[in-house]
Amino acid sequence: MSGDAGRARVWRELTLVARRELLVRVRSTAFRVSTILLLAGTVAGIAIPTALAGGPQHYTVAVAAQAPPAVAALVRADGNAAGVPVTVVPAADRAAAVRSVENGRVSAAVAAGGEIIWKTGPSSALSPVLTAAVQQAIITQRAASLGLSAGTIARLLAPVRAAVTQLHSQTQATARKITAYVAVILMFMAITVYGSYVLTGVVEEKSSRIVEVLLSRLPPSSLLGGKIAGIGLAGLAQFLTVAAAAAATLLITRPSGVPPGTYQAIPALVAWFMLGYAFYSTLYGSLGSLASRTEDAQAAAGPVIALLVAIYVLAIVAIANPSAGWVTILSLLPPSAPIIMPLRGSLVNVPAWQTIIAAALMLGAIYVLLRAGARLYRNAVLHTGARLHLREAWHGEPARPQPAPR
Amino acid sequence: MIPVLEITGLVKRYGEVLALDGCSLRVPAGHLVGLLGPNGAGKTTVMRTLFGLVVPDSGAVRWRGRPVDWRCWRRFGYMPEERGLYPGMRAGEQIAYFGRLSGLSTRAAGAAAVRWMGRLGLAGREDTRIDRLSHGNQQRVQLAVALVHDPDLLVLDEPFAGLDPIAADALAALMHELCEAGTTVLFSSHQLDLVEHLCEDVVILDKGRIVLAGRLSELRARAPRRRLEVTLARDAGERWWERWSLALPGVEVVDGDSRRVRLTVARSVDLEKVLTEARSAAEVVRFDYGPPSLSEIFREAVR
Predict the structure, then answer these.
(1) Chain B nearest CA to A394, separation (Å)
(2) CATH H superfamily, domain A59-154
(3) CATH code for residues B223-301
């Protein structure tokens, strides 16, 4: 009975605090500006390289009237087959075709005898298409002059499908590494930014002394938990907005070379963000309660920042050698799993049991940390004056001068 | 009188410092109680234990006969000495938020915020950000935060600190109204003159212990010493009282000048003798005898 009432009360407190935190963040100018910058950065980051790399570019080719017969149709067909869409425009003669190439209206032209005209040099994408089309047209012409029937010619010239095997795809490995880098940087930034929101939130409540009024109405665990949840939801909303913009940009621009599994990696990244954020924001919040002033906050959170930076450096090293044993171990252990596990996931195949163990360990660590964090927070949050030491906060004693050693 | 609030044997130690040393107190419903004591006596610590903000090493706090828990805290209002508000939040929104935290529905909390803002002279400021309000208005918002859920017990730590005399009078009047409506009010203050006029019940705390508690009129009547002020018609020279005051047992001098002396005297002292002695110096135009003032009781108690 009273247990149910207690749970209902805790839930109510958590949602009230979380709702306030969420609204405060979402309404703040800093949050709106950072969301817009992130959106712009993500869209530009995907769209600009795609545009520069050329991607599926469209070509226009002029075909002079004197060019071998059927060459226009062959250019279109070969272009489509090679994934290079080509529009063919007719030209009255070679001079007209040259003019079109010269003034840039077309990328290349085909003239009498299968001559291919470029402005400066052959384009790597278009050149094989034009060469193949011209060769096919001329061979068809020669075969017809040798008296072969149309059906025989068609059989003779039926496209040859050569099987191609790439033992190690260089471009795809690079793309996977880039994805891994992006995942590591995103995770590191998200945890640091939203975690420090929790840090400043805790210190501001403490330095403005409103915390005493709050704690006369709700327990410290609800206050800390609600704050973490509210800021986390604001962070998640921002993260999801940016992820949706990234997905939309990818769908519209369709860049080549996106490694398989990138889209599926996004939900995993979001899940690991939530676990990592819960872990680190609890650390940030409970250590932040040791500081009394905003100026002391960064010093109080120093150990968390140091830990995150160390993991970040290890993660960058791990990208070069994702199969190493130490990388596997780090990807399973709580403090490093939220960054190293998504990294491994984008580079190698991670067995499901490892993901499950890592997530379970993480959930356990979050539970322990929340309990310990609430205790630290409870003892430290009403203390004012000099920054508390961890040991004092744990034992619930204010800072006192140590007795002189005998 | 059945007490609603009962504090028994509170002990709290911080390292080598004993903040509360067996502090016990009983407050009847609807009473207005002034908690007095020098700095560091433990007033704030006592108030914090009422809300579970400080967990005592031993002792208990009971409300209506049951140990305090969150059910009580929902019905308590607290304004700590160190005031704080969310600076970026709107006044009405902030008051309503605290109402929600104390268990009011969204609608009730919003209505209560408007009602209390009107009552405290903040009507029309609902949408003003806290950091745009004057210092005095911020204090009113803090009071509204403590009152928004119409608490059964209102605890105010130094509520008069920083108030101008008019604001202090308004607060005193409000505290009286609340008590008449049945709210139990416990407040601390250093302004003893104000307390003397405001409340009937006082508790004096010193070094973590309650040294005096009860109805102010009874405390004054019961006080072992009396206040005595003697005024002469003309100057009688430096320290004119010394010749006789030292000779009379139970007489102590507080201060005086060539025409006037303030004394405290034991109740057993023969006033006729004092008057005769004073007359030997000069004609006595005023002989004012009576129970001690609150500040005198206070000084006596925490000596």
Answers:
(1) 14
(2) Periplasmic binding protein-like II (3.40.190.10)
(3) 3.30.70
Q: Do B53 and A212 touch (CB under 8 A)?
A: yes
Would the CB atoms of B97 and A205 count as touching at under 8 Å? no
Nearest by Cα to B170 from B121, B109, B234 = B121
Interface of A with B in 191-250 (CB under 8 A): 205, 208-219
DSSP-assigned states of every residue in A207-223: HTTHHHHHHTTS-HHHH
Do residues A249 and A164 make contact, with C-beta atoms less than 8 angstroms apart?
no
Structure tokens at A11: 């839930």
Enter the ipTM.
0.85
A257 touching B, CB under 8 A?
no
* pTM score, whole prediction: 0.76
For chain B, the domains span 3-215, 223-301
Does residue A9 belong to the interface with chain B, where contact is any CB pair within 8 Å? Answer: yes
Distances A307 to A286, A381, A405 between C-alpha atoms, Å: 15, 23, 33
For chain A, domain boundaries: 2-51+171-395, 59-154
pLDDT tens digit at each of 406 positions of chain A: 457 778 888 899 999 999 999 998 888 888 899 889 988 888 887 777 767 665 556 788 898 888 887 888 888 888 877 777 888 888 888 898 898 888 888 888 988 888 889 888 887 778 888 888 888 888 888 888 888 877 887 777 776 666 766 565 566 677 777 778 877 888 888 888 888 889 988 888 888 888 889 988 988 888 889 999 999 999 888 888 887 888 888 777 766 656 666 677 778 888 888 899 999 999 998 888 888 777 788 888 888 889 999 999 998 888 888 888 898 999 999 889 998 988 888 888 888 899 999 999 999 999 998 888 888 887 787 766 566 677 777 776 543 333 333 3
C-beta separation of A84 from A125 below 8 A: yes
B3-215 CATH, one of 3.60.20.20, 3.40.50.300, 3.40.640.10, 3.30.70.270: 3.40.50.300
